[in-house]
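re: that chain from earlier
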Amino acid sequence: MKNAKSGKRSSPARGNRAPKSVDQYLASVPEPARSALKKLRATIRSVVPPEATETISYGIPAFRYKGVLLWYAAFSNHLSLFPTAAVVKEFKDELKGFSTSKGTIHFPTDKPLPVVLVERLVKARVAQVEIKKRH
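^ sequence. v structure.
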């Protein structure tokens, strides 16, 4: 993940002191992004299977369920959810109001988190993993 010269893409927890836990990552995020990130984390946690675990992967928080399920992070002016390119493509019409890239969705920290949409994105990602593991 490249850091833009403007600093807009730099994650507060990135750098030489990569966090060892999700709680350590959260503690490094300044407000108001920290509160927004906690809400995103709680929303994800509310829909992932109970056996899903949290970890740090690539220096940012991730949920694991039969492998890495998705990542999430805080940046200067947005939160990012990394649910894979297939999920972003599947929800492209519903994501028109958000900045997206191949496998990433940006949620501005100055706007309310679209909780219902996040829940649907996470459920779609879990379903992909379940289908993949059956084949």
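The domain at 22-134 is CATH 3.90.1150.200 (Aspartate Aminotransferase, domain 1).
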